[in-house]
Amino acid sequence: MEYNGSAVVAMVGKNCVAIATDKRLGQRALTVDMGFEKVAPVTDNIYIGLAGLATDVMTLHDRFRMRVNLYKHREERTIEPKTFSNMVSHMLYERRFGPYFVEPVIAGLEKNGQPFICSMDLIGCINYADDFVVAGTAADNLFGMCESLWEPDLGPEELFETVSQAMLNAVDRDSMSGWGAVVHILTPEGVITRELKGRMD
User: Fold this and answer.
1) Cα–Cα distance between 191 and 107 in angstroms, integer?
2) Which residues contact 14 (CB under 8 A, 6 or more apart)?
3) What residues form DSSP beta bridges with 155?
4) For 152-201, how does the pLDDT look when each residue is reduced to its tens digit (9 = 90+)?
5) Contact, 166 vs 146, CB < 8 A?
6) C-alpha distances in angstroms, 131 versus 18, 47, 51?
7) CB-CB contact of 194 with 160 (8 Å)
8) Per-residue pLDDT tens for 23-74?
9) Contact by Cβ (8 Å): 39, 102
10) pLDDT in tens, 85-144
11) What is the Cα–Cα distance from 68 to 101, expressed in whole angstroms?
12) Can you give the pLDDT at residue 124?
């Protein structure tokens, strides 16, 4: 799980939700890439971030896209965040004896505009939360920063500032992750994506 390094966090605001990830791809202490995508859109209202082994991250992004498209054709409707989280959990658990080495973090907005976040371990045990969830090699640091900075009912701009500060300060204390970050804010009006510059050492 620590081979490539990663940091992913999702955080709840008032009728909005944020998901952020670092950009580094490494082979232990060696940095290979500074723009590796760990968060991907599933639908207009759902984003998933995968912390863990880079090859499994890429494989699962494709498999999730395929499963969501199959669901849309079969059900003739867009998948909801809670349904998608159960789908992800099932896909991970069916491979429990030879698991994908990833820790998913899911963020989305329900039909009524309510924010939804959850995280999982590598065999799909779901952890629902109403404040924030974290994953990756910087998870311990992210927990501390989020506990310090998060407040209920943050607006989109306040939520962006909070999740950005938590991410940048957490990865500064983890040699396996960092090199900037990407933040996605999901609101009923649309998705706001911003890139953050971080320390490059």
Assistant:
1) 12
2) 152, 153, 154, 155
3) none
4) 999 999 999 999 999 999 999 999 999 999 999 999 999 999 999 998 87
5) yes
6) 11, 17, 19
7) yes
8) 999 998 899 999 999 999 999 999 999 999 999 999 999 999 999 999 999 9
9) no
10) 999 999 999 999 999 999 999 999 999 999 999 999 999 999 999 999 999 999 999 999
11) 21
12) 96
Q: Which helix (H) or strand (E) holds 186?
A: strand 181-187
183: closest CA among 5, 2, 7?
7
Phi/psi at 43 (5° precision): -135, -170
Classify 199 in phi/psi space as left (phi over 0), alpha (psi -120 to 50) or beta.
Answer: beta
Q: Evaluate the CA torsion angle 145, 148, 153, 155 in order and state its sign.
A: negative
When computed from its CA atoms, the radius of gyration of the chain, rounded to whole angstroms, is: 16
- 22 token code pair: 């670092």
Alpha-carbon gap, residue 200 to 172, rounded angstroms: 10
Tally Cβ neighbours within 10 Å of residue 80: 17
pTM attached to this predicted model: 0.95
Q: Hey, what's the torsion of the CAs at 80, 83, 87, 93, to 10 degrees?
A: 140
Provide the token pair at 136: 């990756």
Q: Which pLDDT score, from 0 to 100, does residue 1 have?
A: 82
Tally the residues of the chain.
201
Q: Which residues of 137-176 are buried (b: 16+ CB within 10 A; e: fewer)?
A: bbbebbbebbeebbeeebebeebbebbbebbbbbbbebeb
